[in-house]
Amino acid sequence: MTDVTSRQAPASPQRNVTGDSITLDGVVKRYRGQDTPAVERLDLEVEAGNIVAFVGPSGCGKTTTLKMINRLIEPTEGRIFIGGRDVTREDPDKLRQSIGYVIQSGGLFPHWSVAKNIGAIPRVLGWDKKRIAERTEYLLDLVGLDPSTFADRLPKDMSGGQQQRVGVARALAADPPVLLMDEPFGAVDPITRVRLQDSLIAIQHELGKTIVIVTHDFEEATKLGDKVLILSEGGHVEQYATPEEILTDPATPFVEEFVGSGAKLAYLTVSRVRDVEVDPVTTARIGESAQVVIGRAKAAGNTWVVVVDEAGRPRSWPSLTEVASKPEVSDYLDRRLPVVAQSSTLNDALDAMLAASQGATLVTDGRGAVVGSLSIGSVTDVIQTKLAEGHAAVEDPSYETYVDGSDPTPTPVVAADDEPGTAGPA
């Protein structure tokens, strides 16, 4: 093994877009007995290969709009185009077979194995068994589940986060150009939610689908969305723009109130880990000679190492003292290991550190392989720099403090020179 010395994410290859554009032309939804429409006249363009997040208060029509795209709800007026096709004229059942759909808690068939769940639409489409099996294996690997471990499991034998990953794999099974997601991560714990968000970003980067996601969480919307659609009651469009535009230039008083005071710390939710310089780490494999690993770490100036599996995914980060306690690197798995992806926000990174009571977090790529570490000092340096930038710092003296007037600089959980990997044995 060699040291991971990449301080920043490598340049990405040209992205392959496989998604289709979505156009809503004068779409209206009225329900009988209601004076006002659930969705008033809506015109919307979603570019191919983009993620667009729908967000707004309860009753604003975001889920209704999502379901009109695949005609689970029929529009009262207007037309919907996918890839230039007027899908309001198509057979709705065939349309839904060509669109991925993910709901909260995965929506898996409880008595079917994972493999059978994923293969549901391909079987309907007449795919042969070999093609379905190959696609299932590829998708399980893509969503971070070992096919040999999970293919034959039932949903009840999996965690909520694992079920949700299977739900995403099933939605992608027939390689649809469009993926619709309705509050997909709302039923999982916060740490799992962040990991699922990062997985979705990694999947999107690899596959280039067009994704529309409904969420009640504005922070999630700004993290996931290339653009964010903010709706008010009756499906009225308040603003449709990039997260940065919405946070820095709210279009209406409604948006300003909806976004709230968090806009003043927008960099926490729109700045990514990949935009911050990460520190190199020394990696080690299970079974390696402890003395060899210690020598490699000392040569690199590190006082701890990251033990990784065959795919380069981190398992633990013992200090050199812990490594030296055994002749070989052990297979200990630290389940509280703080890990964030390059696509994570700085807010995610701080949360990971605080949850694990550590002063740093490991950083991984889209497939979960470790690429370096990020210290709380590096994050706070970015915060301080951002606070000092721009006209807001000049025009508004309170810009450099939180709403309650407190110092915005987080207090490190451990000192900067502390070893981050002391949670368990080596």
Structure, explained:
It is a single chain. The chain has 426 residues and is α/β, with parallel strands linked by helices. The chain folds into two domains: 22-270, Rossmann fold (3-Layer(aba) Sandwich), CATH 3.40.50; 271-426, CBS-domain (Roll). Helix content is 33%, strand content 19%. It has 17 helices and 16 strands. The protein has helices spanning 62-69, 92-97, 114-118, 120-124, 129-142, 147-150, 160-171, 190-207, 218-224, 243-248, 253-259, 267-270, 290-299, 320-324, 346-356, 376-388, 390-395; strands at residues 22-29, 39-46, 51-55, 77-82, 85-86, 99-103, 178-182, 210-214, 227-232, 236-241, 283-285, 306-308, 314-316, 339-341, 360-364, 370-375. It has a six-stranded mixed sheet with strand order 6-7-8-3-9-10, with helices on both faces. A hairpin with a 5-residue loop joins strand 12 and strand 13 (314-316). Helix 5 packs across helix 7 (160-171). It is globular, with a radius of gyration of 23 Å. The two termini are 17 Å apart.
